[in-house]
Amino acid sequence: MKKLASNLTFQVLTAIALGVLVGSLFPDFGAALKPIGDTFINLIKMLIAPIIFLTVVLGIGGMGDMKKVGRVGGKALLYFEIVTTLALVIGITAANLAKPGVGIDARASVATQSAAQAAEAAKYTSQAASGEGMNWVDFATHIVPHSVVGAFAEGEVLQVLLFAVLFGLAVSRIPAEYGQPLMKTFDRLSHAMFGVLALVMKLAPIGAFGGMAFTIGKYGLHTLLPLGKLMLVVYLTMFLFVFGVLNAIMRFYGLSLWRYLGFIKEEILLVLGTSSSESALPRMIDKLERYGCSRSVAGLVIPTGYSFNLDGTSIYLSIAAIFLAQAFNINLTLGQEISLIGILMLTSKGAAGVTGSGFIVLASTLAATRIIPVEGVALLLGVDRFMSEARAITNVIGNGVATLVIAKSENEFDEAKHQLALAGRDVPPELEPASLLPKVEKQVEERG
């Protein structure tokens, strides 16, 4: 019993259950617990930039080949585009078959929204009208930071990733007498950062409790009833995507989806409790490295996927758009639905990292189509928080699968570490990330 109580999975599950209970019985108190969940997420965000930087620099230092870095990045982006496009198509198909919006009087429903909900919907409508969240050019240029310090201070994942790749390549090319001591220092710092992460994760149950209590307390389970069919379609579609599409991809590469999910169960529960996929980002890099992926691949693919590989978000946005069209009794043609997919392929990337990005992307997409009324987003305000968990969990699972696929295709997957991870045994020193140092030192000496 004592061993069970000290298990993080058990602790987070218990915290989530207590959060639901507190939010249901004491809604005002539960809503007031929002700072607890937010503070825990901020603790995680505090570590994201340095962990990504150190992981990527050490990985690239060991790889030492710009062509290989470019190949890994190119494969990842190609995979992201194919799978997210497939997710969009699946979402639109599911919405057309299930018809969750049929029978809803959208205009009457929007008219009866509360003043607070109307104001929030107006905010997203205004952002869509100004073009925020769908400017692909601005998104691309934003990847290059104005300053390195600013990128770290603001937690801009892609900017930190770009600098880390360039820094890692530079370190691998400097003389050995400078490169080796630097890489050894970075390796020690990396272990220290993951040590800090381990300390922060002890607070995960508290963060999950606060996040879940806030969600239930503020929005209430009663808000699910009017749009229950929409939620059911979204959850079932994401379930089928994970256990259909992602399972098929894993099997093709000789991997088990079930074993992978069992290995990252703590990260899945953490995302469920906090409704934030970012809360699992640093741990996913560490977990996938322990699962067999090389440090360089995990460090490159996971952070990039958080902006470009949003499978859950893609499914939700496509279903939500069709739902609103059905609610407003708008019959979309095949050509209009194909155009919708094309717009979502761009807008879903352009709003990455923006607060409230789900609504901004949806509002921007509706504004771009000029067919579905943008004010329709007000219909989704009450249930969006309850669907954010499904989006975030699917995004996390999808990014892990992408990392495994790229690692396998690049022969950067260590089967010995993989088997040890499946057996639940500690990784021996010779297979720890520190074992990269001899490889790094050899690369530096060859280029020195």
TrEMBL record:
Bilayer topology annotation: Multi-pass membrane protein
GO annotations of cellular component type: plasma membrane
Keyword Transferase: no
Predominant subcellular localization, coarse grouping: membrane
Coiled coil: none
Keywords assigned: Cell membrane, Membrane, Symport, Transmembrane, Transmembrane helix, Transport
Pfam families according to UniProt: SDF
Annotated transmembrane regions: 7-26, 46-64, 76-98, 157-176, 188-210, 230-250, 315-334, 340-363
Matches recorded under InterPro entries: Na-dicarboxylate_symporter (IPR001991), Na-dicarboxylate_symporter_CS (IPR018107), Na:dicarbo_symporter_sf (IPR036458)
One of the GO biological process terms: L-aspartate transmembrane transport
Protein location: Cell membrane
Any GO MF annotation of the entry: succinate transmembrane transporter activity
Entry protein name: Dicarboxylate/amino acid:cation symporter
Source organism of this protein record: Hymenobacter wooponensis
Lineage: Bacteria, Pseudomonadati, Bacteroidota, Cytophagia, Cytophagales
